[in-house]
Structure formats: structure tokens, C-alpha cells
Amino acid sequence: MRLVIIRHGDPDYVHDSLTEKGWKEAELLADRISKLDVTAFYCSPLGRAKDTASLTLKKMNREAIELPWLQEFQGKIRKKLKVMNCWDRLPSEWTENKDYYDYDKWYKTRLMQSKNVEKEYKMVCKNLDELLARHGYEHTGNHFKVTNSNHDTIVLFCHFGVESVMLSHIFSCSPMILWHNFVALPTSVTTLITEEREEGTAVFRCQQFGDISHLYAGGEEPSFAARYCECFSDSERH
Predict the structure, then answer these.
(1) Per-residue pLDDT at 29 exceeds 90
(2) Residue 39 CB-density burial (10 A; 0-12 exposed, 13-18 middle, 19+ buried)
(3) CA atoms of 159 and 46, how far apart (whole Å)
(4) CA-to-CA distance for 130 and 136, rounded, in angstroms?
(5) Which of 40, 64, 162, 194 is deepest in the core (most CB within 10 A)?
(6) SS3 per-residue string spanning the chain
(7) Is the pLDDT of residue 236 over 90?
(8) For the chain, what is the mean pLDDT?
(9) How much is the average pLDDT of 97-102?
(10) Which whole number is the average pLDDT over 143-165?
């Protein structure tokens, strides 16, 4: 089975939609995805993901199933009197604590326990497992039991934060590494493919992460969204 995870286009967060650039990115993405033989489409309920998906779905005359848990990851932390996203932390807040690099310990740290991170993480993981099981792959420990071996392609339109959560669960690693050491730019395509080298047992392997070749093919520069300043003295986002 092929699992394709797509981040939405360049976002207009104020209106929960896409910028003019984001719509152009979504158009180039539609040209790429429409060439695939897609078994099922799933989409976040948020506007920027639905708008991104809309051009692909229109081009293919298809519909997507909306899944509430595919919205941007809702894990929050509390620092003093402020409540904020758990997945945008400065290096000084986590890199010196080895527990943040551990699949079973990262959400048990004091900061992550300050609000709802563990609950939200386990909710997304549970729903992902149920989705994959419906498509023939039951999550068992660190691998998948194959109940219906297939060559299906399923496509998920969502967000970088929740994408990292899903990948961390599939690969049994902490999402902190994915949130902070990887970046999936707008309309990027991440592709996982199952390998069943032993009958009845499968693992997912990442063939592509954050691929934006469709943008380069269309002469469109990638968006800076999700990135931060390359050098501290730069004027870009800090």
C-alpha cells in the first residue's frame, strides 16, 4: 500500500485559506496527484487543507472523506500564564533532555504534561491505526499485521504538525525530532510504501519526504512557511 501525506498550500491563516501563491501551488500539485491511481482521499476539516485538496478533487472528479483528527495537531502546553502549541519549541527548551528523543517518554516530560499533549497524541495515533486497519494493515508493536495485502494508494491532505505525529507513530520515534529537525513545505508530498518481506508482516518505508518537485517543474519557488531564519541576523521569521 502507498500512503501519501500532503501538507496544505501556502497558508492565509487569518482566513484559514490559501494565499494567491498557495492556490498556484495547489494547482501544480493537482497536476501531479491527478496522475496517480488513488483509492481514497481523506482531508482535514480546516479550510487551508480543504482548499488545497479542492483543485485535485475537481480535476479528478472525486470527493474526499473529511476526518476531524487530521486537523492541525491540537496538543498544547502551558508556560506560566500562556497556553501555546507544543510543537514549536526553541532548542533550549528540549534538546538537552534525552526524554524528548524517546518515543515513550517525550510526552511525559513536565512541559508536555502541563496541558493535553498526551491525550491529543494518543487520539491521533488511535485514529490513524483504525484508518490503516480499514485498508488492510493492523498496527502491532513496531510493525503491521497484513490482513489485506494490496497496492492501494490513499492520500491525506493535512498539516505539518499532525503529519509529524502520524510519522512518529508509524516509525515509533518521537515527533519532536520530526517537528524540529525536518520541514515539510507547503504542498509537499510525503510517500510511504509498505514492504511485506515476510508474509503477513509489513513495515512502512519512506520513499519521499516533503517532496516539492511539482513546484520546481512548474517554475514556482517554494514558500518559506514552516521555516525559520537561516541565520540569527537574517530578517526572516524568528
Answers:
(1) yes
(2) middle
(3) 9
(4) 10
(5) 162
(6) CEEEEEECCCEECCCCEECHHHHHHHHHHHHHHCCCCCCEEEECCCHHHHHHHHHHHHHHCCCCEECHHHCCCCCEEEECCEEEECCCCCHHHCCCCHHHHCCCCHHHCCCHHHCCHHHHHHHHHHHHHHHHHHCCEEEECCEEEECCCCCCEEEEEECHHHHHHHHHHHHCCCHHHHHHHCCCCCCCEEEEEEEEEECCEEEEEEEEEEECHHHHHCCCCCCCCCCCCCCCCCCCCC
(7) no
(8) 97
(9) 98
(10) 98
Q: How many beta carbons lie within 10 A of that of residue 98, not counting itself?
A: 9
The answer on pLDDT for 81 being more than 90 is no
Q: Cα(189)–Cα(158) distance, rounded to whole angstroms?
A: 11
pLDDT at residue number 226: 84
**230 Cβ contact partners less than 8 Å away, ≥ 6 residues apart:** 236
- Which residues pair with residue 206 across a beta bridge? 192
Answer yes or no: is pLDDT of 197 > 90. Answer: yes
pLDDT score of 80: 86
Residue 5 has pLDDT above 90, yes or no: yes
> How many other CB atoms are there within 10 angstroms of residue 197's CB atom?
7
109: left (phi over 0), alpha (psi -120 to 50) or beta: beta
CA distance 28 to 160: 19
Which of these, 79, 72, 100, lies nearest to 225 by C-alpha position?
72
Looking at residues 224-230, what average pLDDT do you find?
89
